[in-house]
Each structure stands twice: as C-alpha cells, then as structure tokens.
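Hi, here's the filled form for the chain we discussed.

Project: internal
Contact: R.S.
Residues: 382
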Amino acid sequence: MYPNIRKILASEQKRQNTTIELIASENYASQAVMNLCGSIFTNKYAEGYPGKRYYNGCEHMDEIEQLAIDSLCKLYDCKFANVQPHSGVGANTAVYQALMKPGDTLMGMDLASGGHLSHGAPPTLSGKFYRAITYGVGEDGLLDYNIIESLAKLNMPKVLVAGASAYPRQIDWKAFKDIADSVGAKLVVDMAHYSGIVAGNAYNSPLPYADVVTSTTHKTLRGPRGGMILWNNPDYTKKINSSIFPGTQGGPLMNIIAAKAQCYQEALDPNFGVYARQVVSNAKAMCRVFEQNGFPVQTHGTDSHIILMDLSNKNHSGRQAADLLEANGITVNKNGVPNDPRNFIETSGIRLGTAAETTKGHDEEWFRNLADTICNLLKESK
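And the returned structure, exactly as it came back:
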C-alpha cells in the first residue's frame, strides 16, 4: 500500500475508533465481511447469473452467488432474490424499469416528509423518467393511509412505493398493499433502513404483502455496501433479473456478493435477533430522554433505529447542531423535518440512529447517558 493511502486509511480508522457513530444509515461490518470485500473474488468477471455466465472459469462464482441467494431467501422467507445490485438506488431503478415504462405514474413518499431521493424526487432518474406523485405525513408526523388512498385513486399509479429514510415508526405494509390493489398498482417496498431489524424480527416484514422488496445490505443489516431485490411471484423473475443485467449493470461485484453471503449468514444467527431488538430498545430510550429535556422528536418516539429530532423552534439549525456534535466527537446528519421552515441546506432537524453503537455492544443506559450529553451540548451552545 502506498504511504499516502495508508496515512488516509489510518486517519479514518482513528476517526471511527474515537468517535460515536449515530448516523442512521451507517454501521460496522464484521471482519469477515470486510475481508471478503478485499478478497480474490474481486479478480473475476462473471457477467450473467449462476449457470448462465458469459465468461468461463465461473464455477466458484456460481457457488458463492447461489449461496448468497439461498441465504437471503431463507433469511426473509421469500422464493426469489437478486443479489447483484450495486446499491439500493440501483435496485430501485432496476425494479422500476422491470415494472413500468417511461412516463408511467410512480407514487412514493415525499423527500421532505422522510422519503428517499429514489422514490420520485425531481432531480433523480425516478423523477425524470416517470410521472412522479408524492405523498407526505400528517401534522402528527404519521402516515395517513386514508389520504394516501385518495391520492392513489386520483392519480392511478402503476407502482406504489412504501418505505422511507427518515420515518421512525412502523409502516403498515398491509394498508399499502390494500391501496395498491385498489388502483391496480404494484407495491414496491424499499426497506433499506429497516432490513436488519426486519431480519431480527424487531420490525414488521413487508414480504407477505409487497410485490417486490428492495434494500441495501449495509445500514441495520450490517453487511457490505450494496443492494438486493426480493420477490415471491415467478412472473417477475425474468423481468427483474434482465433489468439488472444487462438492463442497468454489467458484471457483478463478486467480492461484494461474497460479503453479502457472509452478511446473510450472520443475520441468520439467533444472536442477530438480540442485536436487532437492542437497536430498537436503545432508540426508544434515547427518544424519552430527548423529549424529557425539551428536544422533541418527530412522532414523539420511534419503532425503529431512526430518531428525527425537530429543531424547528430552536436557535440551532440542523446543520449547526450536526457540526456542533461532530466537534464533540458525535456524528449525526442534518435532516429536514415535515413542513421545515428552513431551507434544505440548513434544515430544522438532525437524524440519529442506534445501529452502529449497538453493534459495539452498548445498552439502554449507555444511550440514555449519551442522549443527556447531546441535550447538554445543544443547551450550552445557545
């Protein structure tokens, strides 16, 4: 390794070892997962799928990819899976391409209400290639399924997307499926943030209701950075697989697929359920301390790892609060809140998550003390 690269690597390792990680989309992968990311699997080109490759010498690529697929299907009790997406956005893009034509109506959660860019935001492919309609949350910060149903009936989407990147509560997957069925739409669930706590039975699974489920493989699932797609209807198999390759990607990253196989097997271990439940318990503990100290959180609580602190009525913007906490060794991210009075650069919220520090073994008491520290830092800097 060249010295200048080694220096940067060492600096990042020091940062990770000496700071408290509360960014909701981040976690700590196991050493085995990281070893596989840097393994000799990276040397092999393997365009195609197990048993149907465009290159020779892929027998071991077939073995590791099939192991990843089988482990993933077992983990979520589904029939079919694609483990090749390079990211969650890539997974979403491929599914949209499989289920829609350009110009069809896509309906997803508004970015300002906690949705994701890939759910129809104007600057993205999903917002440019499709007629994107968005739904939000009510004054209480919660999804209003009656309003979502009315919006769906008015716009008749081809695909209805459920899932979020900054929504802390349980999502009623069945309610979304009923809405989708009522307008003849396909229900796509993006569970990128929730996939780990779903795997650990600490959050409701969308698999019994969704036509297709997408996710990242990092975040709460604690794997390598990548994406995945799951479904149960065999009619989707050819469409989804061909939408990944050759539709939107070339050769798969076999080193990352090997790391995904490791990640899925780790999540099948009973200890993963202990971790997932602790993630949610720790988040609930933090929420109570924030609320008691006069720092309200959206929906006044959480059912997941996500906490969205609302600073609308505080002197700090989300950006200022995030910078202040980083200066004190705590990393979070600025985040908009519903009906945010500040612009998207400043924002009026910070998003926190408990997955990474739970991976380090911390419990409710540790998180309560940390929440007190955060409140004191914000109060002292007025």
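Let me know if anything looks off before we file it.
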